[in-house]
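Worked example 3. Consider a protein that binds zinc ion.
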Amino acid sequence: MSSRNLLEPWFSSAAVRRAVASFSTSEHVIETAIAVQQIPAPTFAENQRGAWVRQRMQQIGLADVSVDPIGNVYGRVPGHKPGRSLLIAAHLDTVFAAHTDLAVRREGRRIYGPGLGDNSLGVAGLLHLGHALREHQIVPAHDIWLVANVCEEGLGDLRGMRAALQHLRDRIQTVIALEGTGHDRIVHEAVGVRRYKITAAAPGGHSWQNFGAPSAIHTLVRLAERLTHLEMPQPRSSFNIGVIEGGTSVNAIAESAALLLDLRSVDPHGLESLVQQTEAFIAAARAADTRITITAAIVGDRPAGRISRDHVLVRTAAAAYHAAGATVAYGVGSTDANVAISMGIPAICVGIADGANAHRLDEYVEIDRIGPGMCALLWLALAASS
Ligand SMILES: [Zn+2]
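Given these inputs, the predicted complex is written out as C-alpha cells:
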C-alpha cells in the first residue's frame, strides 16, 4: 500500500475533516503552549508541569491517565481493535534553569519565549491531538498512547522515554517523538551520544609555598587540550567540552576540577572510535602523574541507529506533511526516538511548526505553520496507528 493510500481513508472521514477545520486557527494551541511554557520544567524537575498536563489529559477525557514514579504522564486514546499501539511522546523538560525569565512576546508572526518551541509547543500539540480525537469522536484503528515524558534534554539521557517504553513494553508497535519545531524535518536517523564527566582530584596546597605539588586544574586542562585533537570518524561525528570547572582560589593549587565531554556520531562504530580515543587519553593522563586521581563517569549514553527512508512510517509521515503543504526534509537527531530505534521499534521524530534558536533565550516559533502542523500530526497519528 502506498503511503498516500494510508492517509486516504482518513481524508474522507467527515469527523477528521471537522478536526482539520478546527486547526484553521492555531490560537488555542498557542494558548496551551504558552501555559505549558510558563511552568518551569528543568530536566529532573518537571513535576509541576507534569501535574498540569495530567489535569489537562483528564479534562480532555483520555483513558488511563496516570503518572509513573519518575514523572512521565500517560493518557490513552482507545482504538477500535486490540493489538499493538502507537506511542506519541513529547518531552516536558527544558534546558532552562528554574529561575529563567519566561516572559513571552509576539512580534509579527513570531512568538518568542525560552522553551516555547522546545518543547512546550510539542506538549501542547500532544494535548490538542488528544482533544481533537476525543472532541470529534474519531476512533483510531488501534490505541494511541500520548505521553508527556521527562528527561529528554542534556543529562536526562532519555531516561523518561526509556521508562515509558519499559512501562508499556510489548504494547507498543510504533513511536513518534514530537517536538514543537522542525515541522518539515523527519528525523529517522538517531545520533549516538556518549557523555563523560571527567574529574581530577589532587592534594592541593598554597600556590607559592607548595609550588610543584600537582594541580587538579593543570592536569585536567592538559587532558582537555588532548581531547580537542580527537580524530573525527566518518560519517558525521562531533565532540564538545561543554563545561569546565574547578579550583577554589587564585592562590590555591586546585584540589579538584571537572569537565563535561559530549561525543556524537551517526554511526555506532564512529562513536566507538571516539570512546576508545577518549579512554586512551584518560589512561595516559592517569599514567602521567599518579598523585592525581582521575575518574571518568559516563553521564550520557544514547544509542545510534536508523530506520530506512523507505520505511512505511517515514513515508507516511512524509505524505502527511506534504498533504499539509510542507516541503519535507530528512534528518538526523538525538531524540527520544533513539531509545525506541535501539529497541527495534520503528520510530521517528517530527515537529509541529517552524521556529529557531532552540536552547537560547531568544527562541521563537512561527505562528503560521502551527495549524498545518497539527493537521499533519492528526493524519500521521491516525495512519500510523492503523
Ligand atoms: Zn526537544
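Take a moment to read the result before moving on. Residues 268-288 form the longest helix (21 residues). The chain has a mean pLDDT of 94.
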